Amino acid sequence: MGKGGMSHGDKKEEENMAAWLVAKNTIKIQPFKLPPLGPQDVKVRMKAVGICGSDVHYLRAMRVADFIVKEPMVIGHECAGIIEEVGSEVKHLVVGDHVALEPGISCSHCNICKDGRYNLCRDMKFFATPPFHGSLANQVVHPADLCFKLPENVGLEEGAMCEPLSVGIHSCRRANVGPETNVLIVGAGPIGLVMMLAARAFGAPRIIIVDVDDYRLSVAKDLGADQFVKVSTSIQDVDAEVGEIQKAMGVQVDVAFDCVGFGKTMSTALNATRAGGKVCLVGMGHSEMTVPLTPAAAREVDIVGVFRYKNTWPLCLELLKSGKIDVKPLITHRFGFSQEEVVEAFETSAQGGSAIKVMFNL
Questions:
Q1: SS3 for 145?
Q2: CA atoms within 13 A on the CB side of 121
């Protein structure tokens, strides 16, 4: 939630409005009271906020895994904006700077944080993860060290895309992707597509992507996938589809990224990966699944978990600045910040189809 307040505020402060998830399938733009600016904080006027699959899931079910929305919550966590005020101890940012915001505030003092894996901090305060508010608002207050100045040739929408791109960057680091790593990506949704862009930037020579949707596979092909395979939702088709994937790859699959997280997608990833290879579970579609672990273990296929990211924003911005990654084609729909447009934007994102990344321009 950045450090946003936990109440709606009073009428004197109604100028700062936010999109509140108030009930299942109900979002309302309402006042959002901000806390006082701390010495190491900045106040940011939001300019670009993307809709993530988790945002849609909260809207539909009021929960994601064990995170349950128990009271009204400001939604949104993929964001960038312009600095409007800086705390007394902030030296690296000034009013007017364009910044991308890393949405998670770790405790910084637990053993996990001290070990450098702050993304796993049990006391993480993360935008739009209950009970903390998100960033789909006119303004938020956030720690300055989690706000990263955008290069001159990187726009605010691209800055907001650093959040999903960070998942791809972190996944590639976890899997040690490099110039000798042939990659399979299961799922051509927004995360699968940024995963593909990240893997290419890390040097992967050959990338195959699979999905059930023809349109998303065509987008993947346009963005640089070497080949794609259309698959079904039936677990009975795994063996035949693995054969198609291996034929399309032409060489062994060194690393597979499951960007969906269903039993079938994980089974596909495990069966398609070579002996001694790696499978990264990136998507979290199901909390429990039945998968062929014993055959995978017999081939010493490593299973690597991925949760959020750490220390990724500088590299994201460098890859965007250099042109090694272009996320702009992923932004397919744009909306303003009115009640009607917020509702329409979430409906558009939830329906999928031609919508890859839906972005708010505030």
A1: helix
A2: 19
Residues contacting residue 107 through CB under 8 Å, at least 6 positions apart: 113, 121, 123, 124
Counted residue by residue, the chain has a size of 362
Q: pLDDT of the chain along its 362 residues, tens only?
A: 444 443 334 444 458 999 999 999 999 999 999 989 999 999 999 999 999 999 999 999 999 888 999 999 999 999 999 999 999 999 999 999 999 999 999 999 999 999 999 999 999 999 999 999 999 999 999 999 999 999 999 999 999 999 999 999 999 999 999 999 999 999 999 999 999 999 999 999 999 999 999 999 999 999 999 999 999 999 999 999 999 999 999 999 999 999 999 999 999 999 999 999 999 999 988 888 999 999 999 999 999 999 999 999 999 999 999 999 999 999 999 999 999 999 999 999 999 889 999 999 99
**268, 269, 270, 275: CA torsion to nearest 10:** 120
Q: What is d(CA 28, CA 19) in angstroms, rounded to the nearest whole number? A: 6
